[in-house]
Specification:
single chain; 805 residues; alpha+beta; six-stranded antiparallel beta barrel; 18 helices; globular; disordered C terminus
Length: 805
């Protein structure tokens, strides 16, 4: 029997397509043994089963959890550095000695006091909690101390006032700390128990609302009794740590003890011995060391004395009385460590990094030969031939008439009334003198009386610096003019424009026109270093830090660094109470280059800041003075110079400074005449790139004198014929959007005939844009004077302390 076969009219239904929801088996069947493109790469990706995927995810979670617990146990533990806590009172009514006394709980553990100049500090050892703390303090008015201590502190303890929270000085300190980058912090209120019981609840509510502005998701603890201090210590020990990127990739150290050994040749320079706990990364003796506020230095050797503050001190049982147990105190430990001093590493001259910060330029490098007379004559002939223009003119036309005939036969004028233009209306710019007719009016009689001047006005006027006031008024005027007429400059009449603007050029398009970043570089560029690829160098250095094991003193060890060729002023600053903080530099970070930083104007500062003014920079762990350039923050290859630090947009600051690998925070201060430092702008380090072009724009303006259909006679842009011919190739534009070019000069007083793409209005202004690349000034200075401390006056304004100016 024959099988049934479907006919041509058989309905054909679409087959079901699983699409992306199909399983692994159907995908393998459809592939029929073909290999995917990814499997042909060098790294063969192994597909795991669901059970293996879950097992792998659980292993990763377990590893991350163990890493967090290990880091938490190491900080303040027996194998790690002490938990460093910076206590900052944010109000003048807060009693700092009383708070430090509450934290020195003798029942909790052992307390070792350490007086560092004016700074109160102590070490608290608590074997019961398996934790040790190192408490330091800083007043918010001492700006450098607060910022430097915050760079190395593990936790900042802010002390708040129960009524106001913080005053104006504390608010200014918080602004600086937030801009620099806050580590882990805790809020504590002192004195709330001293209020009446009825007012305590209201005070807490008001304080919570005030704290929400700065710390929206944080709660505050109390610090009035010993029990509350114990709860605060537990909070500090169990708190999750926040990391600062610029210090996690570098080794750093806070000096607990400093010794200075002068050299035999000069007593002003010698070897500085810095003792402290290693933090961040492993310290290598062949790397350079940066002492904050003093510069870069080389290390001779690293010693490993005994830990002066062990968490579990050694116990000795005497042979005569085995029941009596003696604990070795810190002073005995110091004596023992001096006896058995162990040298960890000595510097290797072949592997040690150099202190060379600048390139020594070779004056003969890149020398070029002067062109011969034949080459110069050929260039002149070529210019003459290229300047000749062939025009079609009627027969009998003279050369003078031919110059007025435009190329392409375009009409050069309007009709009738456009030619009959009233010249007198446009030439009469003389100001009419008004006659004083007030003398004819009768003078009114007034009664005169003597009034004594106020004593307060005299006292106020004594403090006003008239010269500084006049300079500030001039800056305000310049900033206002820059906002109203950006980049506009008056053409000088005593100097030819082709000489005054000889370094400038015209561009068809600021965005797309080419500009070689290597042309016409200043002499200072021969002194700096430049990376072939800064991003790849930074990635390779950071990858080496994470993967490669460095030989040296590990994190948590108590070491003594021998730093060579250190001036005696460093020790004098430490003995006067200033903290001594040292950072180990990454490769190339001692070399000079061009740093670009993105900053935004601080809303609390409204004074005009002009480009190339001397400012104080806090960039990561460095502090220096320099005169920066301001430019627009754009994605193009050319960036327009900004003459003032504007408040409505982010700008890029360009300076000569030592190389620093981002991320790093940036703070800009300006020193006032009374010695105080005013916060101007905050931001971050963007790149180290000398090829970033900052272009200065100059706008020359002219006014239409006679207007035709698409032609106009423009004057007051130039004042002689030669300048018009010199700038003839540069394109013109108007404030109302017209574009054109110069056809030819008229006369000898700077009038010129111009053609545009449309008819001009009589009130329009003709503009010419000229551009020049600018470079920052080499004014880098690593020494920054200490600012005058800030205190709060009765009128809630911040003034310097008396006797500090």
């Amino acid at each position: 029997m024959a099988a049934h076969r479907p006919g041509p009219l058989k309905q054909q239904n679409k087959a079901h397509k699983g699409g992306r929801h199909r399983g692994r088996g159907s995908a393998q069947r459809d592939g029929k043994g073909r290999l995917a493109l990814k499997t042909l790469s060098k790294k063969v990706r192994k597909e795991l089963s669901r059970v293996d995927q879950r097992h792998r995810a659980s292993q990763l979670r377990k590893q991350k959890k163990e890493a967090v617990l290990a880091e938490k146990r190491q900080l303040g533990g027996k194998d790690g550095p002490p938990h460093q806590v910076l206590v900052v009172p944010l109000h003048s009514r807060i009693s700092l000695p009383e708070a430090m006394q509450l934290l020195q709980d003798r029942d909790t553990g052992t307390v070792h006091l350490n007086e560092l100049g004016n700074t109160q500090s102590f070490m608290l050892l608590c074997p019961r909690l398996k934790h040790r703390w190192f408490f330091t303090s800083a007043r918010p008015g001492d700006l450098h101390t607060v910022l430097d201590m915050a760079k190395v502190a593990d936790t900042i303890l802010f002390l708040l006032d129960p009524l106001e929270g913080w005053d104006s000085t504390g608010d200014y300190c918080l602004s600086c700390l937030f801009a620099q980058g806050l580590p882990t912090y805790t809020l504590a209120v002192q004195g709330i128990s001293g209020l009446p019981l009825k007012k305590q609840i209201d005070a807490r509510k008001k304080l919570s609302k005030a704290v929400e502005k700065r710390f929206p998701h944080d709660k505050f603890l109390l610090l009035d009794t010993q029990q509350e201090a114990g709860m605060l210590l537990r909070q500090l020990a169990n708190q999750k740590q926040q990391h600062l990127a610029f210090r996690d990739r570098r080794a750093y150290l806070f000096a607990h003890a400093v010794d200075f050994v002068p050299s035999e040749e000069n007593n002003l320079v010698g070897t500085l011995k810095i003792s402290g706990y290693v933090r961040g990364q492993t310290v290598n003796v062949n790397r350079l060391l940066h002492i904050v506020g003093h510069g870069d230095f080389q290390m001779k050797q690293i010693d490993a004395p005994g830990d002066p503050f062990p968490l579990n001190p050694r116990r000795i049982k005497p042979q005569k009385d085995p029941d009596m147990v003696m604990e070795i105190c810190a002073t005995d430990t110091v004596d023992d460590m001096e006896e058995g001093l162990k040298v960890l590493m000595r510097a290797d001259p072949d592997r040690q990094e150099s202190l060379q910060a600048e390139v020594i330029p070779d004056p003969m490098e890149g020398e070029q030969t002067w062109p011969t007379e034949e080459e110069l004559s050929e260039a002149k002939d070529f210019l003459k031939e290229s300047s000749k223009v062939v025009k079609k003119v009627p027969k009998g036309t003279s050369s003078y008439q031919a110059e007025w005939i435009l190329d392409g036969g375009s009409q050069s004028g309007g009709e009738g009334d456009e030619y009959e233009y009233d010249d007198m209306e446009h030439e009469d710019f003389m100001e009419e003198e008004s006659q004083d007719e007030s003398s004819e009016e009768e003078e009114e009689e007034y009664e005169t009386m003597t009034v004594g001047e106020s004593v307060h006005d005299d006292l106020y006027d004594e403090k006003v610096d008239e010269e500084a006031e006049a300079k500030m008024l001039e800056k305000y005027k310049q900033e206002r003019l820059e906002e109203m007429f950006p980049d506009e400059v008056d053409t000088p009449r005593d100097v030819a424009a082709r000489i005054r603007f000889q370094k400038y050029r015209g561009l068809k398009s600021f965005r797309t026109s080419p500009w070689d970043p290597k042309e016409n570089l200043p002499q200072d560029y021969a002194r700096i270093f430049q990376f072939q690829n800064f991003t790849n160098t930074r990635k390779s250095i950071f990858k080496e830090i994470e993967e490669k094991e460095v030989e040296g003193a590990e994190v948590g060890w108590y070491v003594t660094l021998h730093v060579s060729e250190v001036p005696v002023s460093v020790v004098e600053c430490f003995r006067q109470g200033a903290p001594l903080i040292a950072f180990s530099l990454l490769p190339h970070e001692q070399k000079m280059s061009v740093l670009n930083m993105v900053v935004r104007r601080d809303p609390g500062n409204t004074e005009p800041v002009k480009a190339k003014e001397e400012l104080i920079f806090h960039c990561g762990f460095r502090r220096f003075r320099a005169s920066p350039l301001f430019s627009q923050h754009t994605a193009a290859d050319k960036h327009k110079l900004q003459r003032f630090l504007t408040a409505d947009m982010a700008l890029v600051v360009t300076v000569y400074a030592p190389i620093t690998f981002p991320p790093a925070s940036v703070l800009l201060f300006k020193q006032k005449s009374n010695g105080m430092h005013s916060l101007i702008a905050t931001g971050h380090l963007m790149s180290v790139d000398p090829d970033r072009m900052v272009i200065k724009r100059v706008v020359l303006s002219g006014h239409p004198f006679k207007i035709f259909t698409k032609m106009a006679v423009v004057r007051y842009m130039f004042f002689n014929r030669e300048d018009v011919l010199w700038f003839k190739p540069v394109e013109l534009r108007t404030k109302w959007g017209r574009r054109g070019h110069i056809k030819e000069p008229l006369g000898t007083h700077g009038h010129m005939k111009c053609s545009f793409d449309g008819k001009l209005k009589s009130q329009d202004t003709v503009l010419m844009n000229l551009y020049k690349r600018v470079f920052p000034k080499w004014t880098y200075d690593p020494y920054v004077p200490e600012p005058v401390p800030w205190v709060k006056s009765e009128s809630s304004s911040i003034v310097p302390q008396e006797g500090m100016e």
